[in-house]
Design brief:
It is built from 2 helices and 5 strands, in the order H-E-E-E-H-E-E. The chain is an alpha+beta fold. It has one domain (2-112). Strand 4 and strand 5 (102-107) form a beta hairpin. The two termini are 32 Å apart.
Length: 124
């Protein structure tokens, strides 16, 4: 059983390291403003879950670059189900970083969206 814990720990470490590299690279990408157009309330992913915060908002968004539409998803921090239901509404603007050579590759940074959304997000 101990080997499973070690494998899971190593896998988690590589996942976090890869995510951190991607987020750092995205900070140099151009910034676009999009609009949230759909919400789902989901069970919180491992990085956001706790006993009291078992839900997350997943918000779909779209944005335009050079007249073409692109989109993606962003997730909130963990929260209660009731809180998620009350905050998942409206069409607020969202600031997106996109890869200039492939605008389908997007990252939403929490520091780019401190006050424009009704909920806090996890950088993805």
């Amino acid at each position: 059983m101990g080997n499973v814990f070690i494998i899971d720990s190593v896998r988690s470490w590589f996942r976090h390291r890869s995510r951190a590299k991607r987020l750092q690279l995205a900070k140099s990408w151009p910034l676009a403003t999009g609009e949230i157009n759909l919400y789902k309330i989901l069970p919180a992913e491992e990085d956001a879950e706790s006993f009291a915060t078992a839900s997350q908002i997943e918000a779909a968004f779209h944005f335009k670059v050079n007249g073409e539409y692109y989109g993606g998803y962003v997730r909130s921090i963990g929260m209660t189900h009731h809180e998620a239901e009350s905050l998942a509404q409206g069409n607020p603007p969202i600031h997106i970083r996109y890869n200039p050579t492939n605008p389908d590759s997007v990252v939403v940074l929490a520091e780019d969206n401190p006050n424009n959304l009704p909920f806090r997000i996890l950088s993805n």
